[in-house]
Amino acid sequence: MRTLEVVQTGTLLIVDDVPNNLRLLFDYLKHYHFKLRIARDGEDALRQVALAPPDLILLDVMMPVLDGFETCRRLKADEKTAHIPVIFMTALNDTVDKIKGFELGAVDYITKPFHPEEVLMRINTHLTLQKLQRVLLQKNRQLQQQNEELEAFAHTVAHDLKNPLSSIVNFIGVLSEDYLEQFDGQTLQLLKMIEQESLRSFDIIDALLLLASTRRRDIEMNLLNMSSIMRRVQQHLAPMIAEYHAHIIYPNEWPLSKGFAPWVEEIWTNYMSNAIKYGGRPPIVEIGAEAQPDKNRAYFWVKDNGEGLNMAAQQKLFTPFTRIGQSGIEGHGLGLSIVQRIVERFGGEVGVISTPGEGSTFFFTLPIRDSVSLESGEMDALNE
């Protein structure tokens, strides 16, 4: 018999009610440094797995009392044993039986009579895959932990930066008011620029803090009063609307949706401020909304009359620190990445539909309430 090189070793549980099959596999596999255990039926296999889970199970299909299919089903139903690879051993060539095995969670099939080298290679393949999955899971956990640590550090740094910035802004205010007559026009202009950049830094820090909080903070999803949210957004953007002479078109009614109101307000603020800054002159901004009950969501959008975006620009939009890209427009490129993070926390989607020369439509979706029937008082409260 030809000897094969085996990369992986581990504990194997061989489950078969035929002694000759057990002996054949045991005698062959013991030469490859596997730790071998045997079970004569499904119930014995389940008891052994509960006491000491093996790395892989070779499981016969046709057994009395508890056949291989039911044994596999029970193994996969238990989170403590669901990860163990199961290779079925069967004399059946029926495709339906093989499909059933895969549906139950088996990773492979070996057909009797055995070809020992094939058995060995299949065992080695799935032990290798299992090892790689464990390594990948461990790496993912490490990356998640490192990411959480970095976000916590960034949150602390961003928060601590506010104190010296506040001092700078206050000092500039004192200098501008108390020493106004002692400064020439150029010096006053420089002080004004410092103040503006400090305030802009405040905006960046607030955006970073919000970006970090969208991953770390636990939120409660509630039914939204979108009319009230939009009134606050409009009040916040009133100076910009006036400066750009923007014309805002609102929908007549809002579909019911769920979310966390302060974050939804942030979504609208980002989308609408971008539409105003990057829209036409004057900007015309159309707000839209519709229910999509077949998809269990509400669809919202902001359409501008700007220059539009090519496909390359669209693909970069929701990347942090990437700006839409018009010269002379201020921004730090965090807004859309914040929008994406928020909407994904809600279980929704974000995106853009744009054609160069025809403006852009930025959209997002929110989940809708399971039952859209409301009591009259509740509807009145939402419409206040």
Automatic annotation (TrEMBL):
It holds the Pfam family Response_reg. Residues 129-156 form a coiled coil. It comes from Thioflexithrix psekupsensis. InterPro entries: CheY-like_superfamily (IPR011006), HATPase_C_sf (IPR036890), HATPase_dom (IPR003594), His_kinase_dom (IPR005467), HisK_dim/P_dom (IPR003661), HisK_dim/P_sf (IPR036097), Sig_transdc_His_kin-like_C (IPR004358), Sig_transdc_resp-reg_receiver (IPR001789). CDD domains: HisKA, REC_PA4781-like. Residues 11-127 form the Response regulatory domain. The modification 4-aspartylphosphate is found at D60. One of its GO terms (cellular component) is plasma membrane. Keywords: Coiled coil, Kinase, Phosphoprotein, Transferase. One of its GO terms (molecular function) is histidine phosphotransfer kinase activity. Residues 156-370 form the Histidine kinase domain. Its EC number is 2.7.13.3. This is histidine kinase. Gene3D superfamilies: 1.10.287.130, 3.40.50.2300, 6.10.250.690, Histidine kinase-like ATPase, C-terminal domain. It catalyses: ATP + protein L-histidine = ADP + protein N-phospho-L-histidine.
